[in-house]
Design a protein that fits this description.
about 525 residues; mainly alpha; two-stranded parallel ribbon; 19 helices
Length: about 525
């Protein structure tokens, strides 16, 4: 069986934990303890389908578990077209977890014996072992992960397995699996978000006091501390984490027991299975339970916003690594070359971060279009909801990991940045503030400083190079103390509003993030 992992990285974070507690993950933040990206069980669909098809071709087809009213089997083309085992076997752990909880509930409610329950639990544990060791045979003629596991369980333990699907449909079963998978995927993404935040804050700490040009409209605007700019991305990522936590809270309701759409007449206890699986409560409406994909849309929307933030970070660094800016130099470890131009050193990882954001947004659009015209309740169209989610999660995890890797391998070219600072009259707004302090209305101050800039342009000089007489020719309120407001260093010192780029304000922001992210200092 081919690997079910997305990346060949050593996982230290168990994505598919059976733990019922889901706090925001703790991450040890010493430099040596950064965790590699966790493995995520998402199947490589083409290879899996080819393998499953080969297995199916080698054996006679089984009668479908739902085939009682049918007189003939489906054609090979229909079977190939409708199978989902090539990708939904990524849900195997959650399917087994849900089935164990369901069997325990059925036994408690007198719908199966304790002996049958124990036999089912042992059989499911053995099936999970076989899957994870590569011994398990995935069969296309068994359609999906649920039927593969149930049929294998029947082969393994016999008649007791046939009781497992009591008061359960694949409609509520798959959504239970999917919600559990998404819940764990959110935890994995939260770990990587925090890792990137830590990388950015550490970068900020290494570059204390470094002033860079701030831009609006991609034109020079005002001087800002590099720390301030980096923390802007940290703030964006924090909102991304908050959206994921909100999404997890809303998706954490259990559809199991809703059956096909109407519930069941059997005396099941949906609260028991919900509690056993770590859900907040059972979903109130059985029709909504099997048709809802809001949680998927919200999850993909959240991933899309994160991807856009990462794309903007990528754009910033790609520009800054160019010869035209020259503000950063990525190390060779995160750069690539050209097959024809020997001199090239390209920041390809961040270009791909920028590019892969389109893929994540595309996954969201796919789901939106999938759901837009569906009547209640379940429709087979919804089989198509999983691959975009698997792809979105795999892609966003990769984007976060490589962005953190890139951040740890950047050198800021302080001399180049220093030489670039005089251009653009970055202290003009601070000069306008000076006039306001002197009692000049801001609109008048704006006009005066605009005329001062025009003088500088005509003389090819900076505002701080204008003589006091030249400034007084524009307005007599100027005095010798004006030079305390001119130059980028003086301008940055004058910022004092909450959240601004002033040194004290930024130091306070740094302290906040060091504490919040539990950064180990020293």
């Amino acid at each position: 069986m081919e690997s079910l992992s997305v990346f060949n990285a050593t996982a230290s974070f168990p994505l598919f934990s059976s733990s019922l507690d889901h706090p925001r993950p703790h991450l040890s933040l010493t430099p040596s303890s950064y965790r590699p990206m966790p493995k995520l069980d998402v199947v490589h669909c083409a290879a899996a389908q080819a393998q499953s098809s080969a297995v199916a071709a080698a054996k006679p087809k089984e009668a479908k578990l739902w085939g009682g009213r049918f007189e003939e089997g489906v054609t090979d083309a229909v079977e190939r077209f409708t199978e989902s085992i090539s990708f939904d076997k990524a849900l195997y752990k959650h399917d087994i977890l849900g089935s164990k909880a369901h069997a325990s509930m059925l036994a408690k409610q007198g719908l199966m014996t304790a002996e049958d329950r124990d036999s089912i639990h042992e059989g499911l544990t053995e099936i999970q072992r076989r899957i994870e060791s590569g011994e398990f045979e995935w069969r296309t003629d068994r359609e999906d992960v649920h039927m593969n596991i149930e049929a294998a369980l029947t082969d393994l333990i016999g008649e007791a397995a046939k009781k497992l699907h009591t008061a359960r449909s694949r409609n509520d079963q798959v959504l239970t699996d999917f919600r559990l998978w998404c819940r764990d995927a959110i935890e994995a993404i939260l770990v990587q978000i925090k890792h990137l935040q830590v990388s950015l804050v550490r970068m900020a700490l290494k570059n204390e006091g470094l002033i860079v040009p701030g831009y609006t409209h991609l034109q020079r605007a005002q001087p800002v501390l590099l720390q301030h700019l980096l923390l802007a991305f940290v703030e964006q990522l924090e909102r991304d984490a908050g959206r994921l936590l909100d999404c997890k809270e809303r998706l954490n309701f259990c559809p199991l027991g809703a059956c096909a759409l109407a519930g069941t007449g059997l005396p099941i206890d949906r609260f028991m299975t919900s509690d056993a699986l770590g859900f907040t409560a059972p979903m109130r409406n059985s029709i909504d339970a099997v048709s809802d994909r809001d949680f998927v849309l919200e999850f993909l929307s959240t991933n899309s916003i994160t991807a856009i933030h990462l794309s903007r970070l990528g754009e910033e660094w790609v520009l800054w690594a160019s010869e035209e800016f020259g503000f950063i130099t990525p190390s060779d470890a995160v750069s690539t070359g050209s097959s024809i131009m020997p001199q090239k050193k390209n920041p390809d990882p961040m270009e791909l971060v920028r590019g892969k954001s389109a893929r994540v947004v595309g996954d969201l659009v796919t789901l939106l279009m999938l759901c837009k015209g569906l009547p209640l309740a379940y429709n087979r169209d919804l089989q198509e909801d999983k691959e975009p989610v698997f792809d979105s999660v795999k892609t966003i995890l990769g984007m976060l990991e490589v962005s953190a890797e890139f951040a740890q391998n950047i050198t800021f070219n302080k001399e180049r940045i220093q030489k670039a600072l005089p251009a653009g009259h970055l202290d003009a707004t601070t000069l306008a503030d000076y006039l306001v302090i002197k009692g000049v209305p801001f609109r008048t101050s704006h006009d005066i400083v605009g005329r001062a800039v025009a003088v500088c342009v005509s003389k090819s000089c900076q505002l701080q190079e204008l003589s006091l007489d030249e400034l007084r020719s524009l307005n007599p309120v100027f005095d010798k103390d004006v030079y305390e407001f001119l130059g980028v260093e003086n301008a940055v010192k004058k910022f004092c509003s909450y959240g601004s780029t002033g040194s004290e304000c930024v130091a306070s922001q740094i302290d906040h993030w060091v504490t919040k992210l539990e950064l180990a200092m020293g």
